[in-house]
Structures are given as C-alpha cells and as structure tokens.
Task: inverse folding
C-alpha cells in the first residue's frame, strides 16, 4: 500500500525571516498544527509546496517524528519552493524547470523579458514500494491570486487586471506543458507508475489542469473508463472523482469552495484507488481567504487542505 499526498504548507518560513511569522511562538504554533495533521494522515510520500527556508521544513519533519527523507527544489523569486518528504528512500531526484523542446520563450509580464523556464521548479523523485518503482512529481503552478507591478494585490484599472490575469494563465499553461512533457517521457518507460501531486491553482475542469491528462477519453466516471484503449499508456487520471463529494475542495476563497490541489496517476495506479480512498478532510475547518496573502501571516496551519490518496499496490 502507498499513501501519497500533496499539501501547500502556506509560507513555511522560520520566524525572523522576511515573510515569516512575527514571533517564535507563532512559528511553533504553525509547526504544531501542520505536524499534527501530517501525523494523523500518515502519508508515505508527501509533496509539499510553499516551503520557504529548507530549515523550516526540517523543523516540521522533526516535529512529525520518525525517519523521513527530504528534498526541496530551488526557490522562486518570492523565496518559496516545492519539496517532497518521504518515509521511503529516494532512488533518484531531479528538478523540472526548463520549457520542453518546441515550446518557445514567452512574455509573462509587461517587461520585454522572455521566459524559457518555469518560475517555480517542479521536483521529480523516485521511490520503491515493495517491488514497484513509483515516480512522484511535486509542483506548484502560478497562483490565481494576481500580483500587480509594485507588489500590489489589487487594481482599479480593469485593463491591467485582465492583462495580468492573462499573464498568470499563460504562466500556468507553460507550467502544464513543461510538467506534461516530463510525464510523457516517464510514461514511455517500462511498466511506469507515475504520480503528479501539487497545487495547480485551478480546478479539475480547467484547461491547464486537463493538459496533464494526455490523450482524451477514459476519464473516471465515463463509459470508457474500464475499457482498454491505445491511449491508456500516455494518460493520467485525476483522483478528484475519488474524493467524497462533501470533501471535494482544498481551499475556500471568499466563501467559495475550490479544489485546486490535485493528485493525478498513471494507468496502472488508477485501478488501485477505490472510491473514497482519497481525502481532503485532514486539517480541520478551512479558513476563507481573500486576495491578500499577508492577512494570514501569523495564522497556524495552512489555508489549504491536504489531499491524500491510498493506492493498494
């Protein structure tokens, strides 16, 4: 059995660091809340996002207790990064950052700068579960919460709002194309078992999320799901449909429930995940957030719910 999950830890910085908690006491309360949830959910492999200083993730792992293997990717311009904490040893670790061949550099803001790599690297790790090798990719795509020039989180210029929403969507598209290219390479291997887990910052039906699926058809809940198909070897399946309906959200934005954190798996794994074997109900009540991420600087826990799936290997 493999318990695999994803969780945006919401600005996991040590106190005394820019963007971190205002005091050590506040920091300790955050660690305690996160560690209690992780301990209760008991994942074997957990993809994590919004890790600030790697030392803060080390502090969290120590709070959870037991033996963990931990790796993080390089930070973005904001100083956050993705990572993976695993009870299973890593057989290999690599970053995914450069746009794939055929995807040209693009403009992602009002500047003349062309971008040819993800702003926030994804992290690919390989583990062994019994006799099976499993590839896990942790990723965190561009937020739907827009940032405008000068670090503003709001604007009353509607042309500017539309323009930066377009930039954000283009950035998520670039990230989707890049991760999907890495997945396609993995699925071309022998007997592949692939998991993509992370904060995709959009819901299951969004075009960027669906770019990860690969060939259309055979989605969970459709007539073709349990029919063998030539495209199955290159498909990923989103496990959102396996989450009990009442739990099918990972964040509350202005009072609206959204499922923006996802776990997608390859063909051999999707048949090993039963209905109800995926949960987001592990961290207690979910706060409703606004467009100002600074408002939660000293809040414990996270503004995201963890998503955890049980794969019966």
Result:
């Amino acid at each position: 059995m493999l318990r695999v999950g994803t969780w945006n830890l919401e600005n996991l910085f040590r106190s005394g660091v820019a963007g971190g908690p205002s005091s050590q006491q506040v920091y300790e309360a955050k660690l305690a809340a996160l560690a209690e949830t992780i301990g209760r959910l008991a994942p074997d492999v957990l993809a994590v996002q919004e890790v600030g200083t790697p030392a803060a993730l080390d502090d969290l792992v120590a709070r959870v207790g037991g033996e963990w293997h931990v790796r993080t990717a390089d930070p973005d311009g904001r100083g956050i990064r993705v990572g993976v904490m695993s009870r299973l040893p890593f057989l290999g670790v690599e970053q995914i950052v450069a746009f794939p061949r055929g995807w040209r550099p693009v403009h992602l803001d009002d500047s003349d700068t062309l971008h040819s790599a993800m702003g926030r690297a994804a992290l690919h790790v390989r583990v062994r579960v019994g006799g099976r090798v499993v590839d896990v990719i942790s990723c965190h795509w561009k937020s739907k919460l827009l940032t405008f020039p000068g670090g503003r989180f709001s604007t009353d210029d509607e042309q500017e709002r539309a323009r930066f929403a377009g930039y954000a969507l283009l950035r998520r598209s670039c990230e989707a194309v890049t991760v999907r290219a890495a997945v396609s390479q993995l699925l071309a291997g022998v007997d592949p078992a692939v998991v993509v887990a992370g904060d995709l910052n959009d819901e299951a039906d969004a075009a960027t999320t669906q770019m990860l699926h690969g060939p259309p058809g055979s989605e969970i809940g459709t007539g073709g799901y349990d029919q063998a198909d030539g495209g199955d070897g290159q498909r990923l399946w989103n496990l959102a449909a396996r989450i009990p309906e009442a739990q099918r959200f990972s964040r509350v934005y202005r009072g609206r429930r959204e499922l923006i954190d996802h776990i997608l798996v390859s063909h051999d794994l999707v048949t090993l995940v039963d209905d109800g074997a995926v949960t987001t109900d592990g961290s207690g009540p979910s706060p409703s957030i606004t467009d100002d991420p600074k408002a939660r600087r000293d809040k414990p826990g996270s503004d995201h719910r963890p998503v955890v799936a049980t794969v019966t290997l």
